[in-house]
Amino acid sequence: MRTKSTKYAEFNNKIINHLILFLLLFISNIAAQCFAPNPQNPRELIPVACNLVKNEPQENLKFKDSTSNNSSSSNNMFDITLNCTVSTDLCSKVQKAFDTAGSIISSYLLLNTRIVLSASFESFCDLYSSCSENGILGFASPARWILMEDDDNIQRLYPQSLVKQFELSTHPEYSKNDIIASFNSDVSYWFAEDSTPINETQFDFLYVMLHELHHGLGFSSAWDEYFTGYVTPLLANDPIKEIDAEDDLVYNNTSYSSFKFYECAFDKYVILMENGQKASEITEKLNTYFTENNNANKKKNFEISFPTCLCCPIILA
Ligand SMILES: [Zn+2]
């Protein structure tokens, strides 16, 4: 016979089971905050879901001994996938230049985790109808930016290739590629294997690519002229923050309450030359706009009221 107390116990068990299920669901949905570059506009970042995942043990190379000077092509820490739509001969020069660039960068960066690069060499005239002679040479960008809390308690955008080097036991879900790069085959590029020396109308492909790959590694600033006449950090969605079962701060990737100015990892070191003020202090002041103005369309409102709303220093472009 079932008594009142056994019914109560069953009821309690049901609640506990539901609670455990709820907690499990909640834990499986906890997330870091990640952004991907907008392919239509590289100056804009799109929030992407990146739940926390346990690190799968992988065969990472150990940190190289910086005292040993044994840099060679065998030390290339880049896994390169090249999509090349021109002649086989030209594509093999492009591939070789990518391999050389990978070896060069691997010789002076302390990398413990391989970097995955997805690159293309194709006609921007066909792709983007950008057919002018002085067109874009190419570009590279981190495939994913991950919001990380710095040691000065400011959250900044870290390139995925750098976050991977931290070898975190639990980390935000990574994008398949660390860097995406694209180079314009319409440009008159010069390659090391060319039989003639470079002339004044040509660009050294390896030189251009090395420059761009550093941007792909995250060597860049979020400060730019996004609003006509003013230089600010990058403006993107500010995710709703939640506290998980372990008291950690996590991000809800499906809803956004506001906008926020974000700096990149290296912006921590940016100062104003005239007085030594840290750029991060200005970012913090700029962000008070969003915490103090509870408007529906805050991005739009900020654009309208930007010149007058703040008493903080505004840098003119
Ligand atoms: Zn550049």
* Total beta strands: 17
> Stretches where pLDDT falls below 50 for ≥5 residues?
1-9, 15-30, 59-73, 308-317
Write out the distinct hetero groups bound to the structure. Answer: zinc ion
Helix content: 25-40%
Estimated structural class: alpha/beta
What is the gyration radius calculated from CA atoms?
Answer: 24 Å
Overall residue-averaged pLDDT value:
79
Largest sheet: 6 strands, mixed
What is the H-and-E element order?
HEEEEHEHEEEHEEEEHEEEEHHE
How far is the N terminus from the C terminus?
Answer: 82 Å
The assembly state of the depicted protein chains is: single chain
Shape: globular
Tell me what portion of residues adopts beta-strand conformation. Answer: 25-35%
Please report the number of helical segments: 7
Strand order of the largest sheet: 2-1-7-8-16-15
Domain count = 2
Signal peptide: 1-32
Keywords: Signal
Protein name: Sequence orphan
Short key terms for the protein model shown above:
317 residues; alpha/beta; six-stranded mixed beta sheet; 17 strands; 30% helix; disordered N terminus; disordered C terminus; binds zinc ion; signal
Overview of the structural elements:
This is Sequence orphan. It comes from Diversispora epigaea. The structure is a single chain. With about 325 residues, the chain is α/β, with parallel strands linked by helices. It folds into two domains: about 35-215, no CATH class; about 225-315, no CATH class. The chain is built from seven helices and 17 strands. The strands form five sheets. Strands 2-1-7-8-16-15 form a six-stranded mixed sheet. It has a four-stranded mixed sheet with strand order 4-5-10-6. A three-stranded antiparallel sheet has the order 13-14-17, with no helix packed on it. Strand 13 and strand 14 form a beta hairpin. Helix 2 packs across helix 5. The longest helix is centred in the first third of the chain and has 25 residues, at about 5-30. The termini are far apart. The model is unreliable at about 1-10, about 15-30, about 60-75 and about 310-315 (pLDDT under 50). The structure holds zinc ion (ZN).
